[in-house]
Amino acid sequence: MLLASEGRFSFSQLLETISVEFRRGYNTGQRIEISEGIIYYEAAAKKTTLDVAAPIRQWMQVRKNEILIYYAKEKCAFRIFSKNPLSMEFFEAFLSVMKDDYGLSEFGYKMESYEVRGGKLASNWVPPLAMSKILGPISIEFQDNRIAQIDVKRPDGKTLSKLAFSNHVQFGSIYFPLEIRITRYLPAEVITESIQYKNPRFNIPLPKEIVNLEIPPDIPVKEFEW
What we know:
The chain is mostly beta strands.
C-alpha cells in the first residue's frame, strides 16, 4: 500500500522547478541561529541552490555528491565532495512529500502496519533487518492527504526526532508544508529547528545566475573530501 494514490505520484513527475523563500531557526538551548534567503530547486538535475541573505551573504549549491559554497564579498569558495549523496536536510523535509512513502523505501524501510480513520492515515515502518541495530522504526501521520507528523525512534525504542508539518500549500494533488518543526533528542541536549517557507512558486524559469552558477576565474576554489 502507498501513502497516496498512484495519480499523485505520476503528477509529481511534472514538477520541474521550485522557488521559495525560507527562514530557518536553529535552537540548541544555548544559542539560536537564524538564516534566511531563497531556495531554488531544479528537479531534472536534482540540484538545490540557496541564495542566503542572512546572517551572511553566500551561495550554496548541492548536486549529487557535491556542495559548492561561495562568498562573493569575501571572494572565496569551497567545493566539498562526498562518497554518499548529499542534500539540504531541512529542505528535503519539504521536498519529500512528493514521494508516496516520504522516501523511506529508498533506505530499505518497509511498512509494517497502517490504520485509516476518518481523514487520518497512520503508518508504521521498520528498517531493514541488516540495519536494525543502528536504525529504529518510523511512524508517519497524514491528515486529509497532508503530511502532519513523523516520529523517528532509536533501535531501543526511544525517540530520536519528531517532525511536525503545518500550513500546507497545494500544487496539483501534492500538499507542501510551509511550516516545519523538527525536534531532535540527543543524549546531552534537545535541538529544535523551525523552518518557515513563503511565496512558493512552481515551474517558473529560474534566474540565469542560479541555473549557471559559476565562480569567477580569479577566485580560488578550495576543495575537500568529506
